[in-house]
Structure formats: structure tokens, C-alpha cells
Design a protein that fits this description.
This protein is 47% helix and 12% strand. By secondary structure, the protein is an alpha+beta fold. It folds into two domains: 91 residues, 2-Layer Sandwich (Alpha-Beta Plaits); 121 residues, Globin-like (Orthogonal Bundle), CATH 1.10.490.10. It has a four-stranded antiparallel beta sheet. Helix 9 runs antiparallel to helix 10. The two termini are 32 Å apart. It binds protoporphyrin IX containing FE. InterPro entries: ABM_dom (IPR007138), Dimeric_a/b-barrel (IPR011008), Globin-like_sf (IPR009050), Globin/Proto (IPR012292), Hemoglobin_trunc (IPR001486). GO terms for molecular function: heme binding; metal ion binding; oxygen binding. It comes from Streptosporangium carneum. Keywords: Heme, Iron, Metal-binding, Transport.
Length: 255
């Protein structure tokens, strides 16, 4: 990935035409397979200042693919009148310094923190132990198991990294599934019982939280099933995954 920044200084009286031209140019840009995403922003302090940010798959694919490809003509036709207004046009490589702020709560906070996940796994494993299909898999379960899985879930959903620090992180979790030969009916029962338990303990039931929660549970259980098959060779070392809101964070109307 590479980020291109184009800085414009447009006479204020041309602003609306400039923005309209970019709204049209956005169509061929969005259709380009080399373009990851783009955004045009306008300077608040100096309203003639604009920055266009385009993330490309690579500088090479931008310059050789897009620029020499079939969509560039339609894109450039719209913005040609503003080429002389460009003050800077360069590619910038990511440095790895990036992250999210705290404006949006984590799924962990939204769920109610560590206690919420502890309540969830207590009730869940009570049901699991009595279940005809998956109960036998857990017959020799460590008494601390519900608490360990609560630690895992808390960490995944944005809470403190306790499973990594205190319980051996991803490699330990993985080692617990290896060779178990989990079948699809068992995986599905695990999911069903967890979702029942989520209702029973009153985890937030809003569409956004549940969509993210179920997304992780589907992903995680399908991985657990794959990793548990005879002869599976999963990645041995990895961090505990972190799961976020995805495409639907809590909705905040724009003011
Ligand atoms: C999102 C999906 C899953 C998560 C997050 C998860 C999490 C975990 C964790 C963290 C452990 C290790 C606990 C420890 O530190 O000792 C574990 C162990 C285990 N898991 Fe899973 N698991 C998932 C799916 C499944 C599924 C689908 C099954 C089977 C139907 C399963 C069966 C087991 C069993 C049998 C153990 C060993 C329990 C014991 O003997 O103590 N897991 N799981």
C-alpha cells in the first residue's frame, strides 16, 4: 500500500466547481482495481486549500496500472483544469505508526467489561457440560476453563491483554484445539449455545454489537474446527486477534 497526497490551492470562487469535478472523477477512481480508497478534504482555516488522499495498492500499480490504464482518461478529463492548482503531489509510505483513538468504545467496553464475559462463559459452559453433542468433548475440562475463555474473549474484543500475559496467548489456545477433530455439527452447537448464553446473561442486543460478536464467533469457531483436524498445520505463533466493529460501529449522526 502507498498513500498519495495531492495538495491543491483553488481560488475560493472555483471551489464548488472543483468539488463537483472531483465528485465526477471519483467514479473512474472508484472503479480502478489499483485504488484502495480515497478522500478529498477541504481546509477549514483556508477554504481554498484541499488535500486529496488516495491509497493505492502500490506506487508501481498507480503509475503503470492506473495512469496507463483505460480509466485514467475519464478521471483526468474532469480534473485537468485544476492541474495548475497543485502544490504537492507525492507518494508516502506507511511507517507503521497508526491506530485508533478512543472516540468509539471497544466491543469489550460496550459489552460491559471483564465481568460481562465472565458471566457469559460461566453460563455457556454450564450448558456445554450438559449438552449431548459437545458435552463429552469437555468431560475433562479444567475448572478454570470458563474464566480462561472469558480472558481470551475480553482480549479479542479490545480489553486488557491478560490471556497473552497470563495464559500463554495464541499458542496455548491453539494447542488446546489441536487433534480434537471438531465436526461441523459440534461447531454449530458451540455457536448456538454461546449465542443462547449471550441472551441469557443480557449481553448488549443492539444490531451493531451482535453483528460484530457473531462475526468473531463464526470466524473463531471455523478456525478452531480447521485447526483441530488430523494433520492440520496451523500457524504456530501469532498474536491474539483483535476484533472491532467492522463496517457498522455505533451510529452517530453527523452534526
Ligand atoms: C471462537 C471460538 C473459540 C474460542 C474463542 C475458543 C477458546 C478456547 C480457549 C481460549 C481455550 C484454552 C483455554 C485455556 O487457556 O486453557 C480452548 C480450549 C478448548 N476448546 Fe475452544 N474455543 C473456540 C471454539 C471451540 C469449539 C468450536 C470447540 C468444540 C466444539 C472447542 C473446544 C475446546 C476444548 C475441548 C478445549 C479444551 C478444554 C479443556 O479441556 O480444558 N473450542 N478454547
Amino acid at each position: 500500500m502507498i498513500v498519495e497526497y495531492i495538495r491543491y490551492r483553488v481560488p475560493e470562487e472555483s471551489s464548488s466547481e472543483f468539488e463537483a469535478a472531483y465528485r465526477r472523477a471519483a467514479k473512474p477512481l472508484a472503479d480502478a482495481p489499483e485504488c484502495v480508497d480515497y478522500e478529498l478534504t477541504r481546509c477549514v482555516e483556508e477554504p481554498g486549500g484541499y488535500i486529496l488522499r488516495i491509497t493505492w495498492t502500490s506506487a508501481e500499480e498507480h503509475l503503470r496500472g492506473f495512469r496507463e490504464g483505460p480509466l485514467f482518461g475519464a478521471f483526468f478529463a474532469e480534473i485537468r483544469p485544476y492541474v495548475s492548482a497543485i502544490e504537492e503531489m507525492r507518494h508516502y509510505a506507511p511507517t507503521g505508526v497508526r491506530g485508533q483513538g478512543s472516540a468509539v468504545p471497544s466491543l469489550y467496553e460496550w459489552a460491559g467489561g471483564a465481568e460481562a464475559f465472565e458471566r457469559l462463559t460461566e453460563v455457556f459452559y454450564d450448558h456445554v457440560k450438559k449438552d449431548d453433542l459437545i458435552g463429552p468433548l469437555f468431560a475433562g475440562m479444567d475448572p478454570g476453563h470458563p474464566a480462561y475463555v472469558a480472558m481470551w474473549l475480553s482480549e479479542v474484543f479490545g480489553g486488557p491483554a491478560r490471556y497473552t500475559r497470563e495464559r500463554g496467548g495464541y499458542p496455548h489456545m491453539l494447542s488446546q484445539h489441536i487433534g480434537k477433530g471438531i465436526g461441523e455439527p459440534q461447531r454449530r452447537r458451540w455457536v448456538n449455545l454461546l449465542l443462547d448464553a449471550a441472551d441469557e446473561v443480557g449481553l448488549p442486543a443492539d444490531p451493531e454489537f451482535r453483528a460484530a460478536f457473531v462475526g468473531y464467533v463464526e470466524w473463531g469457531t471455523r478456525l478452531a474446527l480447521a485447526n483441530s483436524q488430523p494433520g492440520a498445520t496451523p500457524i504456530a505463533q501469532a498474536p491474539v486477534p483483535r476484533w472491532g466493529w467492522g463496517v457498522a460501529p455505533p451510529y452517530v449522526p453527523e452534526s
